[in-house]
Amino acid sequence: MRVGEMINQVLKLRKISQTELASKLSIPLSTLNGYVLGKYEPDYNRLREIADILDVTVNYLLEIDPVNVLSDDELSIILRYRCLNEQEKFTMLEYVKFLETQNIKRKISNTLNLS
Q1: Is 46 a member of any domain?
Q2: What is the pLDDT of residue 115?
Q3: pLDDT tens digits along 12-28
Q4: Which of 7, 33, 80, 115 is 20 to 30 A from residue 86's alpha carbon, by CA?
C-alpha cells in the first residue's frame, strides 16, 4: 500500500475528513489529495506532522512497522483505544483480561471433556 492509501485508511478509521486534516496541516486540500492519490509524496517533516495528527507512527504510514500485520479490525481497536481517556483504557484492559480468563476456562473445560 502507498503512503497515500495508508493516510486515507487512517482518516477513515478516525472519521477525519481530508478537509479537516488539510486544515490542521495548513496546506491546500489539493495538496493533501495529491498525497492520498499518490500523485506525489509528502516530505519527511510533513509526514511526521500527518502521523502526529493521526496518532500513528511515520513507520506505520510507510508500512515498515510490525503493526502492519494486524487485520483491519485489530487496527481499528488500537486506534479507538488511543482515543480513550485513562479510565476508559483501564476499563477496556480489564475487560480484555476477563475475556482471556473466560477463554482459558473454556479451553480447559473442552480439554477435560475430551479426556
Answers
A1: yes
A2: 62
A3: 988 999 999 999 999 99
A4: 7
